User: Which sequence fits this backbone?
């Protein structure tokens, strides 16, 4: 087998960052990454299982891979579908050599050695209940200016609809010392933005009991060279007021909280096992809105959960009116294997789910059209992310995580990853237009 590999990644930011660590580990073992499937000796497929018959799509994709078989290629299926389907993958796709879930990646070097010895059916599935986290100094980050740090892995919340507790194992945090060390190394390497990741990032519990989540945010925000600290995703159940106080007191902490509500109906929330009510959620929103800084709030929503009534959908819509989200990610409920909700009748038709989704998305568009107007004339710093040569615009990102397209009179376009002060000249429902000052 040639020691070249190709990797394809699906799913959330945690998966994207896992792939950066997997790539780093492979490179450390002497492998070379290629961007072309055909050139690779080893093809890795980092999978997501969150919605929409994800496992069927993986098997479909593997069937396509099968055509490449016979050229000495080896295949690895990793990530959430790997953990969920386990050895069934070998049965359906015998040419796959490795099946490994994220809780086993720390064993990748030994899995690779076995692969090189010609073994097949190599699994990394048996340590779902591990208390260890995947920590490695070998991270092949794809961006040189902003980077992720996973501070907590797994999920113990068991929402009725969700696969994550079954695919990523139980909740376990890294020590604050280890997080600080990685953040310091990143700052020394020139990173200015760090984003903490976790399925429930604010459920962070320092095994050393030295720092709370809010204290860890502040400590990283105070590192020399660090200009922005973000964190995602926050769970309302564990959202504490000291997080808001930390954002207020520390300018480098970005003024944005992603706090998924899922539904505005307390009855639906109870059926989802979210462990909070509409009022509990709105109390946390009130803390955020009472902050001195204008903290942007975003959310995930699910429509068509089994038994959701039209009136309950409207409770979600009225909650959106109260919160005035700056962005939402709304999904049609999708029945998933192993979850309690799969045995509840999926009572809302696909057409109804589509219609309900549209109700929320239309409403949200109107909310954003008006609420983004508050930025008109505002002066802000944006991090440069790209250049739009056609329209001579530079694409930047605000601290609130909004896209800001701006023009500049300077003959030299600002460098990627640099910061530029701009004034907002026009607002849209999903972006801001500005000019460099
Ligand atoms: N841990 C985070 C989010 C994890 S998954 C949280 O609890 O907020 C990202 C989003 O996918 C969820 O917020 C939810 O809105 C959506 N999601 C998860 N399972 C789903 C399912 N079975 N059907 C539809 N959407 C789902
Ligand atoms: Fe899934 Fe709920 Fe855990 Fe989020 S908190 S990952 S929705 S089980
Ligand atoms: Fe998907 Fe697994 Fe992330 S299911 S959303 S890749 S945690």
Assistant:
């Amino acid at each position: 087998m040639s020691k070249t590999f190709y990797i394809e990644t699906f799913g959330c930011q945690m998966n994207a960052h896992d792939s950066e660590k997997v790539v780093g580990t492979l490179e450390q073992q002497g492998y070379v990454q290629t961007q072309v499937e055909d050139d690779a000796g080893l093809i890795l497929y980092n999978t997501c299982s969150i919605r929409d018959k994800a496992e069927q799509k993986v098997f479909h994709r593997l069937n396509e891979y099968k055509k490449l078989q016979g050229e000495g290629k080896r295949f690895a299926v990793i990530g959430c579908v790997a953990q969920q389907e386990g050895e069934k993958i070998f049965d359906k796709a015998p040419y796959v050599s490795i099946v490994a879930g994220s809780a086993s990646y720390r064993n990748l070097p030994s899995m690779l050695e076995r692969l090189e010895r010609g073994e097949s059916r190599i699994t990394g599935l048996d340590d779902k209940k591990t208390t260890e986290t995947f920590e490695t100094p070998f991270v092949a980050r794809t961006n040189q200016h902003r980077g992720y740090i996973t501070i907590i892995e797994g999920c113990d919340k068991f929402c009725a609809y969700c696969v994550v507790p079954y695919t990523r194992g139980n909740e376990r945090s890294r020590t604050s010392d280890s997080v600080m060390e990685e953040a310091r190394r990143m700052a020394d390497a020139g990173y200015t933005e760090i984003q903490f990741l976790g399925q429930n990032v604010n459920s962070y519990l320092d095994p050393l009991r030295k720092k709370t989540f809010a204290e860890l945010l502040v400590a990283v925000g105070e590192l020399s060279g660090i200009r922005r600290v973000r964190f995602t995703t926050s769970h309302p159940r564990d959202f504490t007021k000291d997080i808001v106080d930390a954002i207020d007191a520390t300018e480098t902490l970005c003024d944005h909280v992603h706090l998924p509500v899922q539904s505005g109906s307390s009855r639906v929330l109870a059926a989802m096992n979210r462990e909070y009510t509409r009022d509990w959620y709105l109390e946390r929103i009130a803390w955020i809105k009472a902050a001195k800084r204008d903290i942007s709030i975003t959310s995930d929503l699910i429509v068509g959960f089994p038994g959701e009534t039209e009136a309950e959908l409207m409770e979600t819509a009225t909650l959106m009116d109260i919160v005035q989200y700056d962005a939402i990610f709304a999904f049609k409920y999708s029945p998933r294997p192993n979850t309690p909700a799969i045995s509840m009748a999926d009572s809302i038709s696909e057409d109804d789910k589509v219609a309900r989704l549209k109700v929320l998305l239309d409403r949200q568009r109107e909310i954003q059209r008006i609420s983004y107007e508050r930025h008109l004339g505002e002066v802000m710093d944006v991090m440069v992310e790209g250049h739009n040569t056609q329209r001579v615009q530079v694409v930047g990102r605000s601290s609130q995580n909004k896209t800001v397209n701006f023009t500049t009179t300077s003959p030299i376009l600002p460098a990627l990853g640099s910061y530029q002060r701009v004034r907002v000249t026009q607002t849209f429902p999903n972006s801001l237009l500005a000019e460099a000052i």
The first strand starts at residue 4 and ends at 9. Residues 204 and 213 are 6 Å apart (CA to CA).
